[in-house]
From TrEMBL:
The keyword DNA-binding applies. Keywords: DNA-binding, Nucleus, Transcription, Transcription regulation. Residues 88-97 have a biased composition (Pro residues). SMART domains: GAL4. PROSITE patterns: ZN2_CY6_FUNGAL_1 (PS00463), ZN2_CY6_FUNGAL_2 (PS50048). The lineage of its organism: Eukaryota, Fungi, Dikarya, Ascomycota, Pezizomycotina. It comes from Endocarpon pusillum. Pfam families: Fungal_trans_2 (PF11951), Zn_clus (PF00172). Residues 59-74 have a biased composition (Low complexity). Residues 12-42 form the Zn(2)-C6 fungal-type domain. GO terms for molecular function: DNA binding; DNA-binding transcription activator activity, RNA polymerase II-specific; zinc ion binding. This is Zn(2)-C6 fungal-type domain-containing protein.
Length: 411
């Protein structure tokens, strides 16, 4: 199947060439290596390294406990990271390492100083925000605007801290249980506080609610403990819950406050350059439009499926990944937000055509598997749909299954 044509990177870094992904050639460290927590080196140039102490502060990328496809992209950029100049002699080692100094608990009697929260906020504002989008304008929103809003809305602050805890659980596997517990506690606080404002959306809080709803859905999707021990049927229930949270973004905020938000400082989150038609997408995704032809479906179901398929094709085109991968989550949530009620009802009824469309969304998720927040979610979703639909729908499941097989062969 032909790949999406793109301008080849002739001067990309070594790791991007090894991983067969396009390098942005940003020096001294490219964006791909930043988000993947890799040491970046360009051909003919000195390698940019992390010092031993800095590497200790960063922590090793997290790994999943089981399965062949894991959430192994912790994407942790070192807090306080800096290039190591070749002409500067290394400093004499201190009595104990900076990592020990930074990670040693401080004795404080100030009840108002929560060092755990400060650690999480620092991590989100220096590391996690970079993993949400490659776009600089959107990164500024996550790094600055979201945190500024959270100072006025505790439910948003607690969810930001919860996302940071989930990310740190991937970055620091030796403390994974601690951070997962923190993430759950913080999310509980956020939800309890959000109950007080969810029925009173207005100009003063709609921006905070928009960001909160997006992070909340991401939390449910990215939290491995939530799906431990789930069979395929239960996982479908879990995933549809994630989709429903994202659909709530439209119902609570976007439908009534779109014009207001579009003129606000959150505009970069909402402004998407429309992809040209015909969409440059995989042929199999284009052929999905044939799913409703020559069928005995009623006109209402056909319309629901056709709209869902067109929006999914748009999502593929807007992502502009071809069959490559992304280490951020920028366009992952675009399709669920746009889903109509009639299609979601068909999903809840486990109609096979609705599930087939969902499997193709799983393929899109799989192209985002390099993100710490996505990992093997797409692969698990495809397998769950395949187990539910059975061999009768094998023709339509062939491409999502092949996407998984080919990625496993590359790995």
């Amino acid at each position: 199947m032909p790949r999406k044509p793109h301008k080849k990177s002739r001067r990309g870094c070594k790791d991007c060439k090894r991983r067969h992904i396009k390098c942005d050639e940003n020096r001294p460290v490219c964006v791909n290596c930043v988000t993947a927590g890799l040491q970046c080196a360009f051909f003919g140039e000195q390698q940019t390294l992390l010092s031993n102490d800095e590497a200790t502060i960063v922590g090793s990328p997290g790994t999943s406990g089981s399965g062949s496809s894991t959430r192994n992209s912790g994407q942790c950029v070192g807090e306080g990271w800096r290039p190591q100049a070749s002409h500067v002699p290394p400093p004499s080692p201190p009595p104990f390492s900076p990592a020990q100094q930074l990670h040693s608990p401080l004795n404080t009697t100030d009840p108002g100083l929560n060092l755990d929260y400060l650690e999480l906020l620092h991590h989100f504002s220096t590391v996690t925000y970079q993993t949400l989008t490659p776009d600089p304008a959107q990164q500024q929103i996550w790094q600055l605007t979201a945190i500024q809003l959270s100072l006025s809305f505790p439910f948003l602050m607690h969810e930001i801290l919860a996302i940071a805890a989930l990310h740190l659980a991937q970055c620091r596997p030796e403390r994974r249980s601690h951070y997962y517990t923190k993430a759950t506690e913080l999310q509980s606080h956020a939800l309890n506080e959000f109950k007080q404002v969810r029925e009173h959306v207005e100009a003063s809080n709609c921006g905070a609610i928009l960001i909160f709803a997006c992070l909340l859905a991401l939390h449910v999707l990215a939290d491995p403990p939530r799906r431990q021990g789930l069979n395929f049927s239960d996982y479908l229930d879990h995933f549809l819950g994630c989709i429903n949270l994202l659909r709530g973004v439209r119902h609570m905020v976007i439908s009534d406050w779109w014009s207001y938000l579009y003129e606000s400082e959150l505009k970069p989150l909402l402004a998407v350059e429309e992809p040209e038609k015909p969409y440059n997408i995989p042929d199999e995704c284009r052929d999905l439009a044939e799913l409703t032809t020559n069928s005995d479906l009623g006109p209402t179901s056909i319309k629901a499926y056709d709209v869902a398929i067109e929006r999914l094709q748009w999502n593929f085109a807007a992502s502009a990944l071809g069959e490559g991968t992304s280490s951020t989550i920028r366009f992952v949530m675009a399709w669920p937000v746009q889903l109509k009620d009639d299609y979601f009802e068909l999903l809840n009824e486990r109609r096979p055509e609705a599930l087939i469309i969902l499997a193709y969304y799983g393929a899109l998720l799989h192209f985002y598997r390099a993100s710490w927040a996505i990992g093997d979610s797409g692969a698990f979703l495809i397998r769950a749909v395949g187990a539910h639909t059975g061999p009768h729908w094998g023709r339509w499941m062939a491409w999502p299954d092949r996407v998984l097989k080919e990625s496993s062969n590359v790995a």
